[in-house]
């Protein structure tokens, strides 16, 4: 009997030590505005589970103020580390300084902050400016540098909106006959894209002189395609379409002949993010400020392969 009690006591002690070693990480997510965001959140939760990380997940529902409060809550809870996918680039300095004062390392994921880089360990993200350039270059070659464009903008003040616009313009402004005729906000949602496109269709008498739609993400374009169909228009044929994310819906639209190109934004980036976090917590310090995630360009030629690769 004594031997049995001893085994149980040792087992319980090991469990306690093991539990004490489980890291608690706060993740401040943007919201649920797009299929890409939903996939990214699911990947972060699954990867944390795989690594035995206790993940505190907060969804800001696209509200910057709510996100700042969530991060303050992680600081008050003395988590081991904080990962932030920032809704907007501004307003972060004080909160990041509070995390630093509490000796809690911060990691920026996906989007970016306009704050002193010394306030966070590293940013793990794709290059949004490059995504805009890739879209601009593909469109320039597809139209021989001659195109009137409607732009659907993402959430105002968000890094992907700022940089995708800049990157796209850097390319198309080199062609005298390529111009953004209209630029309308759609907040990265399908509903926002549909609303924006309905407005533009009215203002341009059925997209007269519009040769292409450039959307900062696939979901806004999928909403815009709905609006164009309702107006009897033919997206993907009469107006070319270029967007970013590479979500399953855009590959289906390509196979239906309604979309022409999407720059893939990888959503399974939890492994890269938690690699950096856990290596930092284990003592590694020499990280690049920007851990770059690659972007690939896709067209109807590989849409079917992309869908089956994703198990759709
Ligand atoms: O493109 C969009 C989401 O932050 C780069 O946010 C990400 C963007 C992505 O709403 O679908």
Structural notes for this entry:
The chain has 312 residues and is an alpha/beta fold. The protein folds into two domains: 23-126 and 267-281, 3-Layer(aba) Sandwich (Rossmann fold), CATH 3.40.50; 128-265 and 299-309, Rossmann fold, CATH 3.40.50. 45% of the residues lie in helices and 21% in strands. The protein is elongated. It starts with a helix and ends with a helix. Residues 33-34, 36-37, 110-111, 160, 188, 217, 219, 244-245, 265 line the site of beta-D-fucofuranose (GYE). Beta-D-fucofuranose (GYE) is lined by residues 33-34, 36-37, 110-111, 160, 188, 217, 219, 244-245, 265.
Quick tags:
binds beta-D-fucofuranose; elongated; 45% helix; Rossmann fold; alpha/beta; 21% strand; 11 helices; 6-stranded parallel β-sheet; 6-stranded mixed β-sheet; 312 residues
Shape from CA axes? elongated
CATH homologous superfamily classification of the largest domain? Response regulator
Round the Cα radius of gyration to an integer and report it.
22 Å
Helix content: 40-55%
* CATH architecture grouping of the largest domain: 3-Layer(aba) Sandwich
Number of helices: 11
What kind of oligomer do you see? single chain
Strand order of the largest sheet: 2-1-3-4-5-11
Largest sheet, strands/sense/barrel: 6 strands, parallel
Mean pLDDT: 95
Which molecules other than protein and nucleic acid are bound? beta-D-fucofuranose
Work out the strand percent: 15-25%
Residue runs with pLDDT of under 50 for 5 or more positions: none
Tell me the span between the first and last alpha carbons.
56 Å
What is the CATH fold-level name of the largest domain?
Rossmann fold
Alpha-beta classification: alpha/beta
